[in-house]
Amino acid sequence: MTTDYFLPIPYGQQTISDDDILAVVSALRSSHLTQGPLVSLFEEAFSSYVGSKFTIATNSATSALHIACLALELGLGDTLWTSPNTFVASANVALYCRAQVDFVDIDLETGHIDIDALEVKLEHAALHGTLPKVLIPVHYSGSSCDMSRIFSLSLKYNFFVVEDASHATGASYLDSRVGSCKYSHMSIFSLHAVKVITSGEGGVVTTNDSSLATMLYKYRSHGITKQATEFLTSDPPPWHYEQHHLGYNYRLTDFQAALATNQLSHLTKFVEVRTNIYNYYQQKLANLPCQLLTVPSYTSSSFHLVVLRLLELDRYSQINLYNYLRTNGIYSQVHYIPVHLQPFYLKAGFKPGDFPRAEHHARSCLSLPVFPTLTEVQLSYIVRTICNFFTK
Ligand SMILES: *Cc1c(COP(=O)(O)O)cnc(C)c1O
């Protein structure tokens, strides 16, 4: 049998056009493959897109999260809180800094950190002297958490807020873009190939705080500064540079920055197509025993993920739907195995049952294919296959 759609269909895929390729080729033909002018050009373009004062580009979102924590001086004796419904990196960065991790359970409607639960946990922590130094809310699937509520809690309990916006490039919250840091100290984005825009591997920190920005630039590059105004040596020679902290090599290359800048010019269109795909699924799957995660009215989503939740698990299980789709050439995915259930975190003392809503989410969710080059034929095939699963 021949088919007019392309199989298999992954849950996510990069969209690279000819102008992306030309931009990378031109960077490769230039004098600088790294530490040239293209990284700053990308940083300026990103800042102007999200509306932040500063953008610091890195070689991954994981390194972006790491230097964000270093800039906040997260260290031994401190605690970082995040959502269990995230990629492991949001939690691991605390351990890179020798701090401790704890989690706050999620809201099942959105998959975001549950702010009521956060409030209760903060009250309790305040009484016991165990308040976090840093909170990392995760903009799961591409819609924003309710940041103004989170930010007012941070003022009351005196902790820093770092948005993990790895999913949310191109999303907005109230009247600003995610990344404007109107209600946080820093925001982190991922430029990994499966995310909304890509540089292959890459990441971004945005902030409006110039002293944090100074630290971020240094931590990205060995803790070294080449800025004469920051030198501790008086009358330095022209080749002088100084290491002030223990930093890393977390730099993005110029040819990656060229790709990222060109991808950014496609972002509005990418999000528009992703939104149309979400609306299509929403409409076509309406009468089945499943539902898509809700996008609250205070945010517009970038739809990095379209997450379906199964509602009658004893009749229609996650693994049966997953396998049925896979047999038919559709590769869905589970986002996420709760971080605290990873063997590494179980060994650290977390237990099944610690965050029951995140665990329920992980048992009942599947991420459906969503990416700009998904064709109408593929989309209607996916919807037909899901309908067949429920009616077969
Ligand atoms: C992808 C992702 C990361 C890590 O991004 P990298 O660029 O691969 O390091 C961190 N947090 C979340 C929520 C992610 O989805």
Describe the structure.
The chain is α/β, with parallel strands linked by helices and 392 residues long. The protein contains 13 helices and 15 strands. Strand 6 and strand 7 (176-177) form a beta hairpin. The longest helix is centred in the last third of the chain and has 18 residues, at 267-284. It is globular and about 80 Å long.
Keywords:
392 residues, alpha/beta, three-stranded antiparallel β-sheet, 15 strands, 38% helix, 14% strand, binds pyridoxal-5'-phosphate
Largest sheet: 7 strands, mixed
**Which H/E pattern describes the elements?**
HHEHEHEHEHEEEEEHEEHHEEEHHHEH
Output the structural class: alpha/beta
State the total count of DSSP E strands. 15
Mean pLDDT: 97
Distance between the termini: 21 Å
Strands side by side in the biggest sheet:
1-9-8-5-4-2-3
The fraction of residues in strands falls at: 5-15%
Identify the bound ligands: pyridoxal-5'-phosphate
Helix proportion: 25-40%
Radius of gyration from the CA trace? 22 Å
Note the overall shape: globular
Number of helices: 13
Low-confidence runs: none
